[in-house]
Amino acid sequence: MSSWIPLWLHKLGSPPTFYRFAGTLRPWAMGLALLLGAIALYGGLVLAPADYQQGDAYRIIFIHVPSAWMSMFIYAVMGVASFIALVWRIKLAEVVAMESAPIGAAFTFITLVTGSLWGKPMWGTWWTWDARLTSELVLLFLYLGVIGLYHAFEDRRQGARAAAFLAIIGIINVPIVHFSVNWWNTLHQGSTVNIFGKSKMSWDMLWPLLTMMLATKFYYVASLFNRVRTDLLALEGGKDWVRKIAEDEAKS
Amino acid sequence: MNRPGVATACAAMLRRDLTLAWRRRGDIAMPVLYALIVTMLFPFALGPEDTLLQRIAGGVVLVTVLLAMLLALDAMFSSDIEDGSLEQLVLAPQPLALMLGMKILAHWLTTALPLIVIAPLLAAMLHLPGAVIPVLLLALLLATPLLSLLGAVLVALTAGTRRSGMLLALMLLPLCMPAVIFAAGAVAAAQQGLPWLAPIAWLAAALVLAVVLAPLACAAALRIALDA
Amino acid sequence: MTAANTAVPLLEARALSFLRQDEPVFAPLDFQLHAGELALVEGDNGSGKTTLLRILAGLLHVGEGELHWRGEPMQRDTCTGEILFLGHQLGLKADLSPRENLRIAAGLFGCRDGIGVAMVLDRIGLRGYEDEPVRRLSAGQKKRAALARLLLLPATLWLLDEPYANLDRIGIALVNQLLETHTAAGGAALVTSHGAVSFHGGEPRHIRMHA
Q1: Chain C residues closer than 8 Å to A239 by CB
Q2: Among residues 5-64 of chain B, which lie with CB inside 8 Å of chain C?
Q3: pLDDT averaged over chain B?
Q4: What percent helix, strand, coil does chain C show, rounded to 5?
């Protein structure tokens, strides 16, 4: 039992196997993402009651909060993949880390924009220098730094290793930024924002949120697999298995 | 044969970089000039009101010094990579992290120290009260080596690329934000008559950590950058 | 030579190759280098000679195959200071004089017993240029200043990338003489060169490289 799991993982780490594996799983993940996303939107925008304080404006959380979770979740995935890539030099881990970055950056961007749109009616301002918001902005810069560094190298694998190193530095940095901005806020007595207040969320609002969270996870998997497959084909262009795929494509 | 000790090697490294900087002393003056010009522009942009300038003085000096350092950061390893000295350094039977630490120290001495020396002048241009200037200098003395150390890691990461100026700024911004917050926080607190020791202590703690970790990270990053 | 061949080789490569963008840069290489031997690395432009030298120096990560140093797998710290690498880039600071450059090298690598910077500069033919910034020297003189490291620094294995480039006839003879004394003293050297090399201390080993 315990011996076949590493073996299976090892096999999955080889590009051709992962290519096939990801190809099989991708449509399912995308289908689930669309289905769950539609259900969650219906539940959140139609079924859930309006908030007694915020009215209908609060409904943006069904996009905002899952995106914020994903922005951090994807960074964590990128960090773990980066660590594996640097320590064991596994090509698949490099590709996963580097292809996660744009998806994570997109989610971070969505979080910032929706947060800003929500903030205008709620706090009367588009932006406030709150620790959570600032950390999210820094997260976006970290993502952009990783993407930029990756593309600055001519050798893609070398670029991936350098960017992976930066991603790991970033993991250490995010909590420090959060802490320092918190400290800064106490000094300047800025507004502290409490998103949910003390009240617990009712189940009517919670289930669409959790469903949307699952939908975004599946979307990430689908999108990542798609990108990784493309990248693997580009990186392994000279290998036999890629040639075989190209020949099969040409025949059909 | 006699192998040099670590102390000899460190001294050789430090002397080399300081001699090189001295041979090109014009370059040392550039960040200083830059900082002077930028600081001069603020009163013209914001108007010469004492109260306003006083309020922003600490932050402006800090950010200006940071930007001036960023200008000089790019050159930390570039000439060594071009002429192959870095390869020789990597191959030398000495701990690479320590040798890079010496390079960072030399870089700090030649770029940040002149900026710290003129910082009182910059602060005076913006009417920062004289009593706050010691705190500003202390904050700079702790924050600038932190920036040199963090910057060195990032410069090492971009060492294998051709154009890195803007990228370096993008990468450095998230890393240097906490340092700016605490350094500026200390100055602001001192200006308001509040206790300013806590942020200084945080800066010092961060600096101690960075002194230990950054050269190691720098060495690792440089090995990645040369491996192509 | 037979006695040396039975001993543990200084450097041994088994099916060594290097991948760039997953394409092998050169065909797998097998060779041994014993103490007292000189090997000439031959191959056309782009056949990976420089890459090979950089791998052996430890600057590049071994792609596939194995490298052994004195019979043990080659690690970064198993051979530090025993290898002297002279690449395309000479590793000289243009703003410093040859004397200062050598002093730094000695500070990092150490120097051979009883040998000083002034003596080395004299032997390499840079008398009168010791204190001139390297920037102002001719290409051949720069090369000599870099080669002076061979005389000054203690090392067992020399990895020389195109040591004859830019040198005049006297300089070439000087390099050959350096190689002879080095191998006679039990050192080994790997040299890449396009041109013919005249080597009098026995037939050098040849390593042929194919892309």
Answers
A1: 22
A2: 8-9, 11-13, 15-16, 19-20, 23-24
A3: 90
A4: 30, 25, 45
Enclosing H/E stretch for C14:
strand C11-17
Nearest of C154, C201, C205 to residue C177 by alpha carbon = C201
Q: Is the CB of residue B126 less than 8 Å from the CB of residue B53? A: yes
pLDDT score recorded for residue A75:
94
pLDDT at A27: 93
pLDDT at res. B147: 94
Tens digits of residue pLDDT in C65-110? 888 888 888 877 777 778 899 988 888 898 999 999 999 998 888 8
Instruction: Give, rounded to a whole angstrom, the gap between the first and last alpha carbons of chain B.
Output: 33
Helix (H) or strand (E) holding A191: none
From chain C, the residues in CB contact with A238 under 8 A are 22-23
What is the residue whose two structure tokens read 């700090």? B108
pLDDT beneath 50, residues of chain A: 1, 190-193, 197-198
List, for residues B100-152, the tens digit of each pLDDT value. 999 999 999 999 999 999 999 999 999 898 889 999 999 999 999 999 999 99
Question: How much is the pTM?
Answer: 0.87
**Cα B176 from Cα B65, distance rounded (Å):** 12
Residues in Cβ contact with A128 at an 8 Å cutoff, skipping those fewer than 6 apart: A119, A190, A191, A193
Between CA B77 and CA B99 the distance in angstroms is: 13
Strand C64-69 to C11-17 pairing: antiparallel
Three-state SS for C49?
helix
List the chains bordering chain A where 3 or more Cβ pairs fall under 8 Å.
B, C
Label each residue of chain B as H, E or C.
Answer: CECCCHHHHHHHHHHHHHHHHHHCHHHHHHHHHHHHHHHHHHHHHHCCCHHHHHHHHHHHHHHHHHHHHHHHHCHHHHHHHHCCHHHHHHHCCCCHHHHHHHHHHHHHHHHHHHHHHHHHHHHHHCCCCHHHHHHHHHHHHHHHHHHHHHHHHHHHHHHHCCCCHHHHHHHHHHHHHHHHHHHHHHHHHHHCCCCCHHHHHHHHHHHHHHHHHHHHHHHHHHHHHHCC
Residue B197, chain A, CB below 8 Å: the answer is no
Tell whether A138 is within 8 A of chain B (Cβ): yes
Which residue has tokens 């911004």?
A: B173
Please, are residues B15 and C100 in contact by the beta-carbon 8 Å criterion? no
pLDDT digits (tens, 9 = 90+) for B144-193: 999 999 999 999 998 878 777 788 888 988 888 889 999 999 999 998 88
The reported pLDDT for the residue numbered C203 is 65
